[in-house]
Amino acid sequence: MSINIVSLATQFLTPDMIARIASALGVDKSLAGKAISAAVPSLLGGLAGVAGTQDGAQKLFQAVTQQPPSVLDSLAGMIGGSGQASLVESGTKALGSLLGPAVVSGLGGALSKYTGLGGTASSSLLGLLAPVVMGTLGKQASAGSLNAGGLASLLASQTTNISAALPSGFADTLRGTGLLNSFGAGVAGANQAARTAAQPAYSSADRAVKQASGFPGWAQWALPVAAIAALAWWFLGNNASNVAQQAKTVTTQASQSAQTAADAARSAATQTAQSLQNLVVGGVDIGSSLQRTVDGLRTALQGVKDVDTAKAALPTLQEATTQFDRLGGLVNQLPAGGKTAIAAFLTSIRPAIDEAFNKILAIPGVSAVAKPTIDTIKGNLDAMAKA
Description:
By secondary structure, the protein is an all-alpha fold. The protein folds into 3 domains: 5-183, no CATH class; 187-269, no CATH class; 280-385, no CATH class. Helices cover 75% and strands 1% of the residues. It has 18 helices and 2 strands. The protein has a two-stranded antiparallel ribbon with strand order 1-2.
């Protein structure tokens, strides 16, 4: 199983732990959860940037391996206790040494703006989260017998997971904090250049999908996957001498990838829409019902940003399990050709659905609320695909 460093870091931040942190800082639990969901991937992204140079990687490696092995185990007892002040101070100092005091201050301001927390609470939260993030990296370094280069490679491999875990809208807020500067001079501008160059291809892909008769929903999920080649490198490297060449390469690859995705989406949308027609059992149009249920699931998942929105989405997710279960029984009654068409449809949408599942489960506290229902949905989809 591949590592998701964001999920590993947030496993420690259970609903009880978030409540304890909120109480210790004197803030609302939902605001604390929202801030944590933005802060953890931001800190990991910043540390990934630090590890982009040989000196930075060595500095980060020393910082994470010098922590006591039991740092995460002892952390809970310190939050809200007499050791909290020293914990915040040492965490803030460690982040300042690695990222720079101005960057840490800017990130605290961005969190305050994004969540509504006060500046003092946001800064203290970063100090509390520093040992969580660095303790997670230390555990991975120890478990994998990693050296400084190995830790840097691990972080470089996590750019997709880190960027996917950033809450919608917060990445733009980060642009004014200086945090992106640690990823390398000119990276932000190169990223924008790549997006601008690729935009015509993305627009073509979007039009192709929307024009696919009778198939408005799932294929649009493929477009963010195509965009990942242009966006994932956002958190990579900080070798200024290579930025211009990186931007040129990424721009070309992004445009080509987006055009390829446009062609594939248009072809797949047309073929799948046709193959799902006339799949009727007992008066139920299975193809249309399946598409509607998938679209409803997608909308529900997109609305999950924290524990409260996960709870609000739970009835829709549970209804999806009911519908998928019902449709699964009907799919079993289809002839072989119909079952093949359903399996092809489900295979095509699973990567995007699984990515959406992983993203919301990485949000602190959401796994405890939604994971049982999500696991049931996965089982339903697997059963239909194998019918």
